[in-house]
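I hope you will forgive my troubling you with a question about protein structure. Could you please explain, in whatever detail you think fit, how the structure tokens follow from the sequence? Thank you for your consideration; the sequence and its tokens are set out here.
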Amino acid sequence: MTRVVFTRMPDGALGTVDIQGHAGYAEEGEDIVCSAITSAVQLTHILLDDIRGLVFRTTVEQEGAHIRIELPAGAREGAKDAMDALFVHYNEMQENYADFITVLEVYSDAEN
């Protein structure tokens, strides 16, 4: 199962998305759930980096299928729509594929 954790910051913006694990819907290379999860986060990264030119930190670890996007306070406003759309998209995926993706929203008390 893929676990997606969004962190909502005190300013109300989503500050991080942390994605870990393979969905397990099908064999590697045939897993449409895993492909949809990966494609959505890749599109979000392209939008934030290549189109919006925002500076943020990305972690990609092949081992354990881990992807994390961390937005500093100065980048959150410019990333708001993209992060909110990713949040809605993953929650809709969870409604249809609950055995393969779980989405959590946690709240941070840290400003950065």
